[in-house]
Amino acid sequence: MSDRKQVHYTYVASENLRLLEQEFAAGIDAQLPDWESTQAPVVTRAGAVNVTFFIYRRAHVMMSHGLADKNYLTRRDPQRGFEINKYRTVCVPGDWLKRKLLTTRGVELSANQIKVVGWPRIDTLLAAQRKYLSERTLAEKLGKLSPFRKIKVLWAPTHNAESKAGVISSYPGILHYEDRLRTLFDYDVSLHPNLRESKKPTFEKLIEADVVIADRGTLVYEAWALGKPVIFPSWLIGEGNLYDDLGSAESHIFHERLGLHANSFDEMVDMIRQVTCPDARTLQFMESYLPRRTLGSSYKLIAEAVDEVWESGNLRIAKKVLAPSRGAPPLVAV
To answer: 160-181: per-residue pLDDT in tens?
Structure first.
C-alpha cells in the first residue's frame, strides 16, 4: 500500500464531458504534486480522497461541472432529501450560492463544509485573454477602433430547449435569425457540448468576442467575468427563465433583469451596437457569485479542500440513498 496521499476522481459513465473532467482533475493534481492520483468512471476508491464533478456520484468532495446554478446542488435524492448531504465537502464558486445552500431547509452541510473556490476555467480564460491582448499587433489594435469594423458577436446557448415553465434555451430559436446576424456583424457560434460533435472547450471564441448572446449556462458567467456584455434574447426565452428553476441564480438574473434583455430582434441589434461592458448592477452580482478574491487561486482552494478531508483521517464515503421498496424501510446503496 502506498504511503503517499491519494486522490481519486470518480467520473460519470458517459464520455460526453470527459475532457472537462480531465481538465479539472489535472488542475487539482498540479496543486497536489506529491499525491498519487487515479480516476475511473463511476467507481470509487477506498483509502483515497474521492472527488467528483457530478451530483449523483459518490465521493468526499464535489464541485459542479458547470458554473451556472440551475438548482443543480439542491437536487433531491429518492428519499426527498438533498443529494449534496452525502458529501463531506461541496465546492461552490462564490458567496451567493453558499448563502443559498446554508439557508435551504434540509441541507445538512455546515458553513465549513461549503467551500468558496471560484471557478477553475475562469483562471484559464483570464490567462488566455491576457495572452491574446498582449500578442495583438498594432494594426489589430487600431483596427478594433475603426468605425468600419464589424462587431464580433458570439451566440453561446445552453442545452435543454424547453421546460415545464416554457422555452429556456435560445437554441434553436436564434437559428432563424442567423443570416441577418451574419450580415450585420462578425458572427460566430459556440454550442453546448451536448449539441455538437467536438467536446473540446472553445475558449478562443469567447475571448475574441465583443458581445455574447446567451441564455442561462456557464458561458453567461464566464463572459461577465471577462468583462463581456451579455444579451439575453428575452422575446424567445424570457418567460421560461423567469419561472424555471425558481430560486436559482438564473431565475434571479431574469427577475432582476441583470445584463441586457432584448424584447425583439431589432432591440437586440441596437444593444449589440451600443453596449461595451457589463453594467454596475451586473458587476455587483458577479462579485457575490464569483468573487475576485478567488481569481487565480481556484485550483489551490479546491486542493486545500481535498487535503482537509485527508487530514481528517476519516475516508469513509457516505452511502447513496435509494428509493424504498413499497412497504419496506428506506434503503441505502453501498
So the answer is: 666 777 899 999 999 999 999 9
CA distance 148 to 60: 54
The third-level CATH classification (topology) of the domain covering 121-289 is Rossmann fold (3.40.50)
- Residues near 6 by beta carbon (within 8 Å), at least 6 away in sequence: 35, 36, 37, 38, 45, 47, 48, 49
CATH topology for 6-119+294-333 is Rossmann fold (3.40.50)
Percentages (nearest 5) of helix, strand, coil residues in the chain = 40, 15, 40
Q: What percent of the chain has pLDDT over 70?
A: 90
Looking at residue 68, the DSSP 8-state letter turns out to be: S
pLDDT digits (tens, 9 = 90+) for 192-233: 666 666 555 568 899 999 999 999 989 999 999 999 999 999
Cα gap 97→70, rounded to integer Å: 11
Locus of grid cell 436564434 = 174
Query: What is the DSSP-derived secondary structure letter of residue 76?
Result: B
What φ, ψ does residue 333 adopt, rounded to 5°? -95, 145
Question: What global pTM score does this model have?
Answer: 0.90
